[in-house]
Automatic annotation (TrEMBL):
Gene: sigL_3
GO molecular function, one term: DNA binding
Family the UniProt entry places it in: Belongs to the sigma-70 factor family. ECF subfamily.
Keyword Transcription attributed: yes
GO biological process: DNA-templated transcription initiation
Domain HTH luxR-type: from-to ranges: 159-212
Protein known as: ECF RNA polymerase sigma factor SigL
Domain of life where this protein originates: Bacteria
Length: 212
């Protein structure tokens, strides 16, 4: 009877796993597999939105999940907090933060002319802890443009006029679906500054699309 009840339990998501010593808990390899399935598409979209290169984006995401494997194994092997369940509750921002760090490292190895620097704290007057980080132009690639209709091209062109910080915050919020708190954890901004950059981005897009 016990085995039957365990088999009938709904599958767990990486964000809400059981603790590693709970009956019926997913094995570590299953937990990691679920994490990849749940998050890889959003991470790939995020990395490609910055790097504008499919192969490099795949490398960045692969290395992100390799770090996740290492981190999860450390947690399971250590009797002290956090448990795998506690870590799973903040898995999304952790993954995006690791991916962002890897993307930044890859950018720094590219030709300097391809970069647009993010604003420093003195430039923006905010708590940006990633001063001096560079973000490649996120305007659409030729292949992207070819598959767009006229309205989509207008939106893509408008997004290309945003500052690097505005584009990143907009992507994390709209495309990746992160909360203000999660975006703050990923980028090093405060939640208030996340809201500021998002508000500025939306207003700028409205004005550009309206032809103001």
């Amino acid at each position: 009877m016990a085995e039957s009840s365990l088999e009938s339990e709904p599958p767990l998501t990486p964000d809400r796993p059981l603790t590693s010593d709970s009956p019926g808990d997913l094995r570590l390899d299953e937990w990691l597999s679920d994490a990849v399935q749940c998050h890889q598409s959003r991470l790939l979209a995020y990395a490609r939105g910055i790097l504008r290169d499919r192969s490099s984006s795949q490398d960045a995401v692969q290395e992100t999940f390799l770090q996740l494997c290492h981190k999860a194994r450390q947690i399971v092997a250590t009797p002290e907090p956090p448990t795998l369940a506690e870590f799973g509750q903040r898995l999304t921002p952790w993954l995006f933060k690791v991916c962002r760090t890897r993307v930044i490292d890859m950018q720094r190895k590219r030709t300097p002319q391809a970069f647009t620097s993010l604003p420093t704290r003195s430039d923006r007057g905010d708590d940006d802890v990633s001063a001096g980080v560079t973000v490649v132009d996120t305007s659409p690639t030729p292949d992207d443009v070819a598959s767009m209709d006229e309205e989509q091209r207008r939106v893509a062109d408008s997004i290309g006029t945003l500052t690097p910080r505005q584009r990143e915050v907009l992507q994390l919020r709209i495309q990746s679906g992160l909360s203000y708190r999660e975006i703050a954890e990923v980028t090093g901004l405060t939640p208030t500054n996340v809201g500021f950059h998002l508000h500025q981005a939306v207003n700028s897009l409205r004005q550009t699309l309206a032809g103001v």
